[in-house]
Write a structure and sequence with these properties.
By secondary structure, the chain is α/β, with parallel strands linked by helices. It is built from 17 helices and 27 strands. Helix 4 crosses helix 5 and helix 13 packs antiparallel against helix 14. Bound molecules: 5-amino-5-deoxy-1-O-phosphono-D-mannitol (M6R).
Length: 607
């Protein structure tokens, strides 16, 4: 949570910091601030609210003018969103911005209070600022090195010392941090999109490494303070990928980017019409002996895992257990040698998923990460790694990342089924041929269902609560549809296995409770249709999502949204599109901030 940036170079530092922070606002948006060296002195501007509020404030009151500084956009953890709790935070000679959580901040605060330090805010960050101030011995590197050894928890810190004008220091442990380099300028940032306006070249920071940015360039130091050289990375995203490109919201843009994202993710992994995951460290030989698979993730990524479970179990006949990462890590899971633990994460920085992966390794399982963010912690620490190539996903509500996570689930399931001898090469080729048709079919789906989904959104706009129902893969999909709706429309919704309704939940059905039923699986179609009849006869307004070939009368539901047909194992990749769009349009009709829903942040790097 929270985004940090820093800049040293010839441009107007305040402008660069605000522009870079705009690309990180998805990480938190309840307050914002910057600190810039102006004529050798650190000047701070900050405010409760969004970056636009900070810009407005600086327009009225003047912005700090200089060429080096740090900035922050916040998702509150310690202390409510307010001016005093906004970053940057300062001691007498040190000013910092912070992403992460200092777990031992209470004992450090007591220690500092005894030493005569006083505090203005409720934050853990101010404790670090005061600690740096207390330990400052005239040598910033030495001071940072001493202080980080006293900290427990996660942090990416941007630090400026009053005695060292036009110099920015940064250090990380657990929280993400990159260092960008351009012509005579350098940057720090929590994520790559922040720097794409200026450069595509960046370095990844390892735990406890320190970087020093000056007008002469960047210097890196390892955890023993020894100078080190690092490998330069190049971003394969361009600025367009991080802009709205004419769409009103990132979410709708990202929904439209799904066909391309699938192609980028799937096509390079196909050779001679067969899945080839060897560049990810996966071969028929090294996966054929796994007896149990655990898929561990959070939120949308966990829902992608649910689809994976149905597909892997169906094709490869290997038992798959899907776990919420925050549960898995604390329940002493039955995992061990011979098991495969798959961690799915868009950001690759989700605290619970990271901890779950470490635990799985500790228990002796092999780990496979399915991650979108290049060089993220989860990507770096897994035994095997499949990158999803969704490109930057900026909207807090995940859409294209989910789509490519599912695509990878299919690729992996095909490969595993082949390794286990459950499908023949010909069957595998036929499955892959269908998978390659998906991008065009998603394109077609988008064209076909757009108006229907706008209409559905307008009929749901005043609902207080609704249910999603489905069976099998459609149930897995309903979970994601329901999450999408609640996170951006703020309408309560739940997903139920349709057959489970009559065991209690059907008592909730009234005219006030709309139901979205997903029925794309032939063998289960009639069963789900019976459930549709049951809820309709009790007054529910029903929206049915099915394929365009299913034979039903138009009076079966109040609205029927038909998606193109593809082989049924792959239907989730088409049927998810109307569910995403229904959530989008419902939220739009309710006038919500679609890309930045309340109380949320894109990357959950704290527990
Ligand atoms: O970055 P991750 O994929 O690990 O994030 C997991 C969840 O926080 C994330 O999917 C969240 O549920 C989304 N906001 C849903 O749209």
């Amino acid at each position: 949570m929270c985004g940090i940036v820093g800049y040293v170079g010839p441009r107007d530092c305040s402008d660069v910091l605000v522009s870079a922070l705009t690309r990180l606002e998805y990480r938190g948006y309840d307050s914002a601030g910057i600190a810039v060296f102006e004529n050798g002195k650190i000047e701070v501007a900050k405010t409760k609210g969004r970056l636009s509020d900070l810009s407005e404030k600086m327009e009225k009151e003047g912005k700090p003018k200089g060429h080096a500084g740090i900035g922050h956009t916040r998702w509150a953890t310690h202390g409510q969103p307010s001016y005093v709790n906004s970053h940057p935070h300062s001691g007498k000679r040190v000013t910092i911005v912070h992403n992460g959580i200092i777990e031992n901040y209470i004992e450090l605060k007591e220690y500092l209070t005894k030493k005569g330090k006083t505090f203005l805010s409720d934050t853990d960050t101010e404790v670090v600022a005061q600690l740096l101030d207390l330990k400052y011995d005239g040598d910033p590197l030495d001071t940072i090195h001493t202080v980080i050894r006293m900290l427990k928890g996660s942090f990416a810190l941007g630090i400026v010392f009053a005695d060292y004008p036009d110099t920015v220091f940064a250090v990380r442990r657990e929280s993400p941090l990159i260092v960008g380099v351009g012509d005579n300028e350098s940057f720090i940032a929590s994520d790559v999109p922040a720097i794409l306006n200026y450069t595509k070249k960046y370095y990844l920071m390892n735990h406890d490494e320190i970087v020093k940015l000056t007008h002469d360039g960047v210097e890196f130091f390892d955890s023993h303070m020894l100078p080190i050289t690092k490998e330069l990375q190049e971003a394969d995203w361009d600025m367009d990928a991080a802009e709205k490109g004419g769409y009103p919201h990132f979410m709708i843009k990202e929904i439209h980017e799904q066909p391309e994202a699938i192609k980028r993710t799937v096509l390079p992994r196909i050779r001679d019409n067969m899945p080839d995951l060897s560049e990810c460290g996966i071969t028929l030989e090294n996966i054929k002996d796994f007896k149990n698979i655990h898929i561990v993730a959070c939120g949308t990524a966990m829902h992608a895992g649910m689809v994976g479970k149905y597909v892997i179990e169906g094709l490869a006949r290997v038992p798959v257990n899907v776990d919420i990462a925050s549960e898995f890590r604390y329940r002493n899971p039955l995992v061990g040698e011979g098991d495969l633990v798959i961690i799915i994460s868009q950001s690759g920085e989700t605290a619970d998923s990271k901890a779950a992966m470490s635990l799985a390794k500790e228990y002796g399982a092999k780990t496979l990460a399915i991650v979108n963010a290049k060089g993220s912690s989860i990507a770096r620490e897994a035994d095997m790694l499949i990158y999803t190539h969704a490109g930057p996903e900026i909207a807090v509500a995940s859409t294209k990342a989910y789509m490519v996570q599912i695509a990878v689930m299919y690729l992996f399931a095909f490969q595993l089924a082949l390794a286990k001898g459950r499908i023949t090469e010909d069957e595998c080729k036929s499955l892959l041929t269908s998978l390659m048709e998906v991008p065009d079919k998603v394109e077609e789906t988008l064209e076909k269902v757009m108006d229907d989904c706008q209409y559905a959104g307008s009929s749901l706009v005043n609902a207080d609560s609704l249910l999603y129902i489905g069976r099998g893969l459609d149930y897995a999909l309903s979970m994601e549809g329901s999450l999408k709706l609640k996170e951006i429309s703020y309408i309560h919704s739940e997903s139920y296995a349709a057959g489970e309704l009559k065991h209690g939940t059907i008592s909730l059905i009234t005219e006030e409770m709309p139901v979205i039923a997903v029925a794309t699986q032939n063998a289960l179609f009639e069963k789900t249709l019976s459930n549709v009849k049951e809820v309709r006869s009790r007054g529910a307004y029903v929206i049915l999502v099915c394929d365009e070939e299913c034979h039903i009368g138009s009076d079966v539901a109040d609205q029927i949204i038909r998606v193109p047909k593809i082989r049924e194992e792959l239907m989730p990749m088409l049927a998810i599109v109307p569910l995403q769009l229904i959530a989008y349009y419902t939220s739009l009709h309710r006038g919500n901030d679609i890309d930045k829903p309340r109380n949320l942040a894109k990357s959950v790097t704290v527990e």
